Amino acid sequence: MSAATPTPVQPNPLGGESYRLILPNTAAAPRIARDFLTSLLHLSRHPGLVDDARLCVTELVTNAHCHTRTPRIGVHVAVNRKRVTVAVSDDGGPVREAFGMLGTAIATATAGPEEEHGRGLALVESLALAWGTGSGGERHPGRTVVWFTLGRPGVTT
Question: Phi and psi dihedrals of 155, rounded to 5?
């Protein structure tokens, strides 16, 4: 049996620690991501961020599961003393395909008060200090990354 080779993780630009979880694209992925993030936040002394973080990561992982054909969903968490940033990535296509032609103008205008779908990213926006979308660039074409940052408002580091 050969030893596993550790995957280098880029340093957290905010200081602190970085963690990465790769999940198979299954219905259990959102629950596993929630549990992973909950454990990290409790261990890093951020219990006040747990509820909002669980809602946000559930939304992003569920979107990747339901709206892409990616085989794997990545969850990257950067934690420092004051903030946590979570990025969810998939190889299922650009944001436009994964989220129904969204950009920063979220598709909340089409979601009525009685509809069950279409308000998840608005929820992320309302809870996060910041959030956004990106791609894998030249190195990972077709990759979609959606991220959010939680912490105390007004804290810059």
Answer: -95, 125
Tell me the C-alpha distance between 103 and 95, whole Å: 8
Tell me the pLDDT band of 114, cut-offs 50, 70 and 90. Answer: low
Show Cβ contacts of residue 149 under 8 Å, excluding neighbours closer than 6 positions. 83, 84, 85, 86, 128, 129, 130, 131
| pLDDT 10s digits, 57-102 | 999 999 999 988 899 999 999 999 899 999 999 987 544 444 443 4
Q: 17 pairs with which residues across the strands?
A: 79
pLDDT of 140: 74
Q: Are 29 and 9 in contact (CB under 8 A)?
A: no
Distance of CA 81 to the CA centre of its chain: 19
Strand partners for 144? 90, 135
Collapsing DSSP to helix, strand or coil, 64 comes out as helix
Euclidean distance between CA atoms 31 and 147, whole angstroms = 18
Rounded to whole angstroms, how far apart are CA atoms 96 and 44?
35
Q: Report the pLDDT value the prediction gives residue 59, as an integer from 0 to 100.
A: 96
